[in-house]
Design brief:
single chain; about 240 residues; six-stranded mixed beta sheet; four-stranded antiparallel beta sheet; 10 strands; about 25% strand; disordered C terminus
Length: about 240
């Protein structure tokens, strides 16, 4: 049996001491298997963003155990955490985080450059990732020449180009109009159907409805964890003009 992508055991994140102690995440147990699609929901201050930072190796838990693809993250120094973050996690953020004066292809190549992938292979993999998100004909465009939805799809191409074990998205449709939101969610559906493991942090029910599993957080704990009904029908075809 394949090992889980994410395994959290008794994970907590504490800030302050005494009466000022804040339990941002408080004793979370979570297992995410390969190929799952999980939405994490909760109001502001519920702990979902802190949990995302821990899962993404952007922050360390105060206590508990976190295994990412079988690796005990807490045993790694900062350099090794940076390496595992680059190789095993693809990040998608609300703000796209594209470099303005760099083409779509070069933006997608960036994490592979950090991983010291050879230039020819970087370009080949970047172009393949852009094709996967429906943007082959926008490969030479700058972010300013792309719509918001297209920019987010470039960011998704960048996230998957390293072939990570986990795609981690933080409010990925928060800056998009309804049409672009539909395109991004359709793309997530396709990636998951192809075997990608997704964890999406969101406050939008529309986004969570695409997930196979929905976690709801409150006061740093997971208050509910349920399997969602499958999304009906195939996702729409992506169009470059979106």
């Amino acid at each position: 049996m394949a090992r889980p992508v994410i395994e959290l055991r008794g994970v907590a994140k504490l800030y302050g001491t005494g009466e000022s102690l804040v339990r941002a995440v408080d004793g979370v147990d979570l297992v995410v298997e390969r190929g799952d699609y999980v939405a994490v929901m909760g109001a502001s201050g519920s702990g979902k963003s802190t949990l995302m930072n821990i899962i993404g190796c952007l922050d360390a838990p105060s206590r508990g155990r976190y295994l990412l693809d079988g690796v005990d993250v807490r045993r790694l120094d900062e350099r090794r955490q940076a390496i595992i973050r680059n190789r095993k996690i693809g990040f998608v953020f609300q703000s796209f985080n594209l470099i303005p004066r760099t083409t779509a292809t070069r933006n997608v190549e960036l994490p592979m450059a950090y991983a010291r992938v050879a230039a020819a292979e970087r370009r080949q993999r970047a172009l393949a990732a852009l094709a996967q998100v429906g943007l082959s004909d926008r490969a030479g465009h700058l972010p300013s020449q792309l719509s918001g939805g297209q920019q987010q799809r470039v960011a998704i191409a960048r996230a998957i180009a390293t072939d990570p074990v986990l795609l981690l998205a933080d409010e990925p449709t928060g800056a998009l109009d309804s049409r672009s939101t539909d395109e991004v969610l359709a793309l997530f559906d396709r990636l998951n159907a192809a075997g990608r493991t997704l964890v999406v942090i969101t406050h939008e029910e529309e986004v969570a409805a695409h997930a196979k599993r929905v976690l709801r957080m409150q006061d740093g704990t997971v208050r509910s964890d349920r399997r969602a009904a499958a999304v009906a029908g195939p996702p729409p075809v992506l169009r470059a003009a979106g």
